[in-house]
Amino acid sequence: MDKFTFPDDMIGYQDIARLEQVSQKWLSTSYDELGISTIQLDQTLAESTTDCSSSFDGTQQGATAGKALGFRLTLQGQDGKPFKLLHEDKAVPGSRNCPTSYSLSESYAFTPDGKSAVLAVLVQRFSQGFEGRDRRFIAVTGQAR
To answer: Is residue 33 predicted with pLDDT exceeding 60?
Structure first.
């Protein structure tokens, strides 16, 4: 994992574009007791009140008018097969500022006494800001099973 993917590490403005290129779309986990081996991120097209079609790099398939880049998170078991959809964007809020890509930063698991385990996954969101590349974080939480 690239050391710059952690949210508490200070990075220089000039490093954001390089960070976007090396960032990961999956995380190997140490949650064997939960049956999770990998958290997978896939980028998707989703509805948006902001037309982000000008932010696409040409690799997106289909009509992009009225769409924005969203993401889907799935949990994969020890066999490598997905067993739970943790998050999927149906619509992308305008506050994300026409994302150009997403990647995974880190994840945490917590099992409260007598309750089911929960996950928190930090997703990096990259976009074109007023003065250049911008990186923000989205926390996605949910039940592990």
So the answer is: yes
